[in-house]
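Re: duplicated header lines in exported structure tokens

Our pipeline writes sequence and tokens for each protein into one text file. With two proteins the header for the second block appears twice in some exports. Here is an export where it did not happen, for reference. First protein block:
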Amino acid sequence: MSATIIVTAAWIAHGALALAMALCTWRMIAGPRAQDRILALDSLYVSAMLQLLTFGVRTGTTVYFEAALIIGMLGFIATLSLAKFLMRGEVIE
């Protein structure tokens, strides 16, 4: 019974996260400013990370958790770099 509930909840979460990723992609393409595009990219990598986590919960393997951790770290560094580029005009001082 509880395994069925977890699998059903994971499928619902997959659908909601796929919709969130589609909307973030649309905002990245149609964003009027660069700040909107960076925020959409930030939301996109968080949604991708959560997608991997729910897939890991559904399948029961730990490989997806490590991949989600790597996506989180790389996405954080990318957001910082893009924000610094928008503030100063250069990334490396």
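Second protein block, exported in the same file:
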Amino acid sequence: MWNSETYGQLGLSEIPDKLMLFYDRNAVYGEPMELTIGTDSQNHASGTKIVTVISMICKGHGGIFFYETEFRDLIKVVKQKLETETYISLETAKMLLDELDNGGYRILVDNCPLSIHIDAGNAPQGKTRDLIQGLTGWVHAMGYDCEVKPDSYSASTIADRLSK
């Protein structure tokens, strides 16, 4: 199940309607809108908590997001965590695009670029810096744009807060 601060719990098949409502309300501003998917995970005593976020923003006018939480066995290796997060984001993007295409929401696909947000950054001493090229290459090979820190807000801000 997906969660929304606005709409409560809903299935993935219900999200396109909510995205379309947001799009229709904000199209009057004439500002770009973007659809993003990002995943972050945090290790806890009982395992790894993984949160995936689907967000849509209208620049300068706010946004909406939906999130799904799952728990897995503890993932200790940073590379494995980032690969898992990226894989989940890519799978979510595929499922969402299938819903959008099959449900007559082509206007969203055509007018709201979809990008995958990866929770990795270029900090000189960061643990994830050396993984960026491989992860972004993977996302691009799957046909998506992507962002890393500091521009990967769906993963590094929204999902990060929800995974703690």
